[in-house]
Write the C-alpha cells for this entry.
Amino acid sequence: MVKLTQDQIARRRELVEKFRQGLLTIQEAEELRQLLELEKQEVSESGDLMLLFGIILLLGLVIDYLGGKNIDSLKKSIDEFVWGEKKRKKKRLYI
C-alpha cells in the first residue's frame, strides 16, 4: 500500500495552490502529477470514491496544463470544479 509522507502532502498542497494561482512551472506541474498519481493509488486502495474522483479530475487538469492548453481556461476550470467557485448570474424570481 502506498502512503504519502507528510512532506509529500505539504508539497502537494503548495503545488496545488500555485496551480490555482496560475504560477506553476512545467517542472512543478510534472512533480504535482507524480504526487497525484501516488495519491490516486493510495485513495483507490482505500475505496473513497469521491476523493478518488476529485484527484482524477485535478490530475486531468494538470496533464492538460502540461499539454500546453490555455492557462486561463484551466484556471477557470479549477475554480469551478475543484474549489466550487463557479461564478453564475443569480436568477431572480419575479412574483
